[in-house]
Amino acid sequence: MKYSILVEVYAELEKHSGKIKKAEVVSELLKETPAADLEQVVLLLGGRVFPVWSDKEVGVAIQLMIRAVSRAAGISPEEVQKQFNKSGDLGLTAEELSREKKQRSFGKKELTVEHIFEGLRKLAEVSGAGSQERKLDFIAELLISAKPLEARYIVRTVLEQLRVGVAEGIVRDAIAKAYSVSPEDVENAWFLNQDYGEIARIAKEEGTEGLKKVRIKIGNPVFVLLAEKAPTLKEAIESFEKVGIEQKIDGARLQVHRKGNQFWVYTRRLENVTKQFPDIIEYCKKGIRAENYIVEGECVAVDKKTERPLPFQALSQRIKRKYDIEKTLKEIPAKLNLFDVVFLDGESLFEKTLEERRALLEKIVFPQKGKIELLEQLRTKNLKEADQFYRKALNESQEGVMVKNLEALYQPGRRVAGGWLKVKPTLENLDLVIVGGTWGTGKRAGWIGSLLLGCRDPDTGKFLDCGMMGTGVKEKETEGSVTFEQLTKLLKPLILSEKESEVKFKPKIVIEVAYEEIQKSPTYESGFGLRFPRFLRIRTDKAPEEADSLERLKTIYGQQKGKK
Ligand code: AMP
């Protein structure tokens, strides 16, 4: 398929902000797209060449892109930077420059979706000496062949800043519309197989029947069931007929898959961390008596000496570690607290109640203390007993408790009403994305000294700012803390633009933030501002798409008003 067709659609999508219209535009494109191109087109519509859960990335920073644009346009990088400072969008700058140049040149070759897609995928593989130059050559080459409008979107796609507002919900609705199937069937299939390209192909070629046949496959990550928040323990236990209460442990949720002698381990963001957890696999081999399963649990790092659980930060080092894994295993031992089983002996258990799943889990797990354990579950509707359990959890430095409906089925990927309720003390923290910041002065010179926080707008997939934060990040390193220096290091490669001391970042890093109050504020795009926001930790286990939404801010705002 010609890239110019996709580009026309991008431009059309930018003109509309409504979800329904966007889905309509995308569905028209899908109808025209040959089955063989669907995977590529669907991913590119979302501005990606790898699925969300993939750990691969194109890896081109803004400075390299400026050089590529400069080479394609035949002007100096400084001149490109100048024009970019004016437009604030390097895609638009590349388009303008290409327009000026096009009047002087002829005989361009036609770009195809496949060429762009495969080319960008290959860029992710380029590494080692001279890799930057090779990347530069390839992108400049693309830009020279591109028509002006194509240049706009090539630049944005490479920088992972497509900005045409096609969130997953829109792709779902567009697939449904294009092939006359229901959005629920599309979404359910997608929860089991996170490849909208393939789902689109199945919908096109096999319709509803095909979608219903999509099953989880051991080895492919599964979207997990998510929890809702409950304001109080009392309300939580009164929500369900039958409840099971568990500690809410501060670790990382892992799903472990086993098929014969093969194992896979995924995080809740569906990252493949099999290599990082050979110890957990070993424990599962010994502690779970079945050969074919997917189980879920919360993994925590434990202190070598005291054997007490360590804060999440310690485990996150294990997750990030790609080399010297054997050494890290010894330094930071981990244990798995199992709480669910979703697949056993060839059968998906999504249709079984938690009570039934728990009974199966208890049958197959043979706990080994400090290595693999069954998370204790208290079954009670008695508030006093529940309260004691909750206090014990807090005394043991856990986050709170999970109150689970024993009669609920497992609904992957959803925060379902009537499933799990988490109960934590105080005004609940928010998980927000760092979208900008300012360079610090004085003691904080050279560091990003304050951070601009953004909440998610599910309609557009954009992040709307909702507060500036400088508290909670440390100037000097102390145990378990995060310093400005560390944050600056993480943020530097994500810089999108700079204007004097103000910086904009790619929305990649999710952090947990405590605050005193949410106020209405015209200063911020979201219309809300956090009062006294305070940094708690980096949520490496959460993708930006999982950050708290504008809706969440509105709800909390409403709740606190009611309390005054
Ligand atoms: P949150 O990240 O605040 O939405 O809370 C949900 C997360 O809590 C899950 O994804 C798990 O990682 C974690 N968790 C801790 N303890 C439990 C538990 N007993 N049952 C389920 N999830 C738990």
Number of domains: 3
CATH architecture of the largest domain: 2-Layer Sandwich
- Assign the structural class, choosing from mainly alpha, mainly beta, alpha/beta, alpha+beta, or little secondary structure: alpha+beta
Average pLDDT value? 90
Distance between the termini: 59 Å
CATH class of the largest domain: Alpha Beta
Number of β-strand runs: 19
Helix content: 40-55%
Instruction: State the CATH superfamily name of the largest domain.
Output: DNA ligase/mRNA capping enzyme
Q: Largest sheet at a glance?
A: 7 strands, antiparallel
Q: What does the radius of gyration come to?
A: 25 Å
- Give unreliable regions as ranges: none
Helix count from the secondary structure assignment: 20
Structural write-up:
With 564 residues, the protein is of the alpha+beta class. It is 40% helix and 20% strand. β12 (448-457) and β13 form a beta hairpin. α10 crosses α11 (183-192). The structure holds adenosine monophosphate. Adenosine monophosphate (AMP) binds next to β2.
Short description:
The protein contains 20 helices and 19 strands. The protein is α+β, with helices and mostly antiparallel strands and 564 residues long. Strands 11, 12, 13, 14, 15, 16 and 19 form a seven-stranded antiparallel β-sheet that branches. Strands 3, 4, 5, 6, 7 and 8 form a six-stranded mixed β-sheet that branches. The chain has a four-stranded mixed β-sheet with strand order 1-10-9-2.
Give structural attributes:
globular; DNA ligase i, domain 1; alpha+beta; binds adenosine monophosphate; 20% strand; 20 helices; D-amino Acid Aminotransferase, Chain A, domain 1; 6-stranded mixed beta sheet; OB fold (Dihydrolipoamide Acetyltransferase, E2P); single chain; 3 domains; 40% helix; 7-stranded antiparallel beta sheet; 564 residues
